[in-house]
Amino acid sequence: MPPTLPRFAAALALVAGVALVVPAAPPYSAPPQKPDEVAIGGQLLFATWPKGQKPDAVLVVSGQTYGYLQPCGCSRPQTGGLERRFVFIEHLKAKGWPVAAVDAGDVFPDGAKLRDQARMKYAAAMASMREMGYLAVGLGKSEIKSDLFATLASYGLQKEQRPFTLAANAVGVIDGKPVPRETHFKVDSDRRPMVEALEVATVGKVPVGVGGVVGRALSEASKEGKWDTGLDFPDAQKSVRGILKALADHPTKPELKVLLFQGPSADAELVAKFDTGFDVIVSSTDETNPPMVPAKVGNTLVVHTGTRGQYVGVVGAFKKPGGGFELHYQLVPMTEAFLTPGTDADAYKANKVLPILQEYAKQVKDAKLLKEWPKVDHPAQLAGAAMQPALKLKYVGSEACKKCHEAEYAVWDKTPHGHALDALEKIAARPTLRNFDPECVRCHTVGFDHKTGYVDDATTPALKHVGCESCHGPGSGHADNPRAKDLHELLRPWAQREAGVFDLPDMKFIEQMAKLDVIERGKVPLKPAEQILINQVSGMCSKCHDADNDPNFDLYKYWPKIVHGKKRAPGEEMKKK
Ligand code: HEC
Ligand code: HEC
Ligand code: HEC
Ligand code: HEC
After folding, report:
1. Which pLDDT tens digit goes with each residue over 246-289?
2. Which atom of ligand 4 is nearest to the CA of 555?
3. In terms of CB atoms within 10 Å, which end of the chain has fewer, N or C?
4. Mutational pocket test of ligand 4: of 440, 470, 503, 544, the residue with most ligand atoms within 8 Å of the beta carbon
């Protein structure tokens, strides 16, 4: 392997192989030991900023965190998380820099399955940002879609506190008529409304003014999608001008002016072009890879920092002798270099975000959200019911398979799948209690997304860990009736029966493929049905070993570590049924 191929086929495979290469993420160095050693784009952080000169004000910029509070820790290294963001901001303050922070919005998770959990995440993220010195956040689509009042209340109702949510053009709609923001979002007479137009603060010696607006694109999408018919976001441009005027008239005379603009960067650039006066406009754009060098329109920096909190941006404002600021920008990946040093106990004392995340994990446990997770039929449950309406396939647990499949069980028991739930109970820290979090438990148990699958320790003790049925599907029918051929088929849905291809290629082939790179693999001939079977098995694994949780997944490298099945043994030739 690989055998010789006709020249043109090799050339074609090469082209196909090249096309398969995954575009690289923005470059960042391998996790170094110290914050000062973090590099991006081949340069240490702040290398291009004026040397030996402290900025007069520093603005940390983030956005679209979408509830990503903390990396899951499934694989390493992962970027992002609020623990690291806190450490990073403390690191800036330790340089003697005056720091404040703003966020474009979309703090709330997008498309979360459980609204209650999403709201707990939102409140935890807002509280964490308060501890980091955030002044304000914008109002994003995920918040607009989330039943905004309840979301805002989960953080802002008890107490008037930063970060304030800014959307100058937000209005209520009652009986088709607009209700002004100040009235619609009013809490009581001596408090600011829960959605504000601007926030002003003094950072170091620099008065900073921040405004927020929902751009036209989002406003229209909200209307079309009927995200919340009780809300409207009219006249973005008029509101932008209103913010500029309000800042000009403000008694503190803000010198550094910032706009949180909910909308695509291209629209934010138009705002910068037609409504000069902002030093920084933070836009929101669902691109994972944020630019290292932000757009500069006139004197305005237009920045966005990607999604999921993997990066933050830092704007350094240096006063110019003749007035105004010289602005410098640094994109910063939230790598492991910004983990809180020391033991977990030390970290909980030093990092004000960690106790908030722990409280979040406890709320999830106390709310018993594991029981709330929506369950849908597994494809085998649907197929089983189509075969025989009375056949209601259930998950029975790996112990039930053991008595007839001892050899497979013995292999499985020694793989990490055999104790996968322990990782949540014993390895996951900062915070702990992840074995009560449905968003974690999903991939560390049997059939959590499906009817009769794992619920919790007490209800379904047999379905802990990644068991046989995590891959083979609910097995009650087969366990009751092991000779039924039609039920065998449901246990191996990847088999290409019509083409007579039932099994993965033999181990010799798999181990050879594991050694090849993507381009070389592209040259190895496989029958279409063989390729389909491999893709289907790989796709099944990738429901858990997905790009976020395990970016290194490669069936050829992983299967040998869990290989089992009577017909397969290392080195054995492929047999067909
Ligand atoms: C009562 C005994 C028994 C139990 C319990 C049992 N099996 Fe089987 N299993 C068999 C027999 C017998 C076969 C057929 C072997 C053959 O055809 O060579 C089989 C075949 C299989 C196959 C191969 C199907 C195919 O494509 O031919 C899979 C996969 C499998 N079992 C998984 C499981 C799982 C998962 C469980 C637990 C949910 C389980 N078995 C429980 C006896 C059992
Ligand atoms: C989409 C599926 C998926 C979800 C959701 C998921 N995990 Fe995992 N997890 C995995 C996979 C796959 C691995 C094994 C990765 C590997 O070995 O490279 C893993 C491994 C782990 C490990 C073990 C790492 C080790 O050192 O052995 C921990 C700890 C962990 N996950 C924690 C979590 C936490 C906490 C959550 C929830 C925030 C979570 N997981 C959610 C799929 C998932
Ligand atoms: C991580 C996914 C996964 C888990 C967990 C898993 N299997 Fe499998 N199993 C597979 C795949 C994929 C194959 C197909 C292998 C092939 O075609 O060579 C297979 C093959 C088999 C076969 C042989 C089928 C045949 O006819 O060749 C049996 C029997 C089997 N598994 C039983 C079990 C039992 C019992 C358990 C639990 C103790 C288990 N499996 C756990 C994925 C899994
Ligand atoms: C239901 C979710 C799920 C599915 C499906 C799944 N895995 Fe896993 N896998 C996990 C989790 C979770 C872990 C981590 C367990 C731990 O470390 O405690 C893991 C760990 C592993 C490991 C150990 C990784 C290491 O770093 O040593 C291998 C190998 C593996 N899986 C292979 C596979 C293969 C191959 C498939 C498909 C045939 C598959 N898995 C399907 C959830 C899954």
Report:
1. 999 999 999 999 999 999 999 999 999 998 899 999 999 888 78
2. 35
3. C
4. 544
Residue 21 has pLDDT above 60, yes or no: no
CA distances from 290 to 103, 104, 160, 500 (A): 15, 14, 32, 47
| Closest protein CA for atom 21 of ligand 1 | 488
Cβ pair 349, 342 in contact under 8 A:
no
Mean pLDDT of 534-539: 97
What is the 468 CA–ligand 3 centroid distance (Å)?
Answer: 7
The long-range contacts involving 242-249, CB below 8 angstroms and separated by at least 24 positions, are 242/168, 242/197, 243/168, 243/197, 243/198, 243/211, 243/212, 243/213, 244/211, 244/275, 244/277, 244/278, 246/197, 246/198, 246/211, 247/198, 247/200, 247/209, 247/211, 247/277
Which residue, judged by its Cα, is nearest atom 14 of ligand 2?
74
Spatial distance between the Cα atoms of 148 and 178, rounded to a whole number of angstroms? 16
Residue closest via CA to ligand 1's atom 13 equals 482
Number of the ligand closest to the Cα of 462: 1
Protein residue closest via CA to atom 10 of ligand 4 = 417
For residue 497, which ligand has an atom nearest its CA?
1
Residue with tokens 């305005």: 300
CB of 74 closer than 6 angstroms to any ligand 2 atom: yes
Task: Using alpha carbons, select from 387, 326, 364 the residue that is nearest to residue 113.
Answer: 364
What's the angle, vertex CA 422, arms to CA 421 and CA 426, rounded to 5? Answer: 135
Does the beta carbon of 466 sit less than 6 angstroms from any atom of ligand 4? yes
Q: Considering just the CA atoms, what is the radius of gyration of the chain in Å?
A: 27
Phi-psi region of 147 (alpha: psi -120 to 50; beta: other; left: phi over 0): left
Handedness of CA 325, 330, 331, 333 (dihedral sign): negative
- Give nearest CA residue, ligand 1 atom 18: 566
Asked whether 464 lines ligand 4 (CB < 6 A), one says no
Beta carbons of 36 and 396 less than 8 angstroms apart: no
**Which of 117, 435, 549, when mutated, tests ligand 2's pocket best, judged by the most ligand atoms within 8 Å of its CB?**
549
Which residue is listed with tokens 């089983």? Answer: 384
Distance 496 CA to ligand 4 centre (A): 23
Nearest CA to ligand 2 atom 25: 74
> How buried is 415 (Cβ within 10 angstroms: 0-12 exposed, 13-18 middle, 19+ buried)?
middle
Query: Of 454, 458, 437, which is closest to residue 397 (Cα–Cα)?
Result: 454
pLDDT tens column, 458-506: 999 999 999 999 999 999 999 999 999 999 999 999 999 999 999 999 9
Residue 544: CB within 6 Å of ligand 4?
A: yes
Summarize pLDDT for 172-217 with one digit per residue, the tens.
999 999 999 999 999 988 899 999 999 999 999 999 999 999 999 9
Q: Which ligand is nearest to the CA of 403?
A: 1
Cβ–Cβ contacts within 10 Å for residue 444, how many?
A: 25
Who has greater pLDDT, 11 or 243?
A: 243
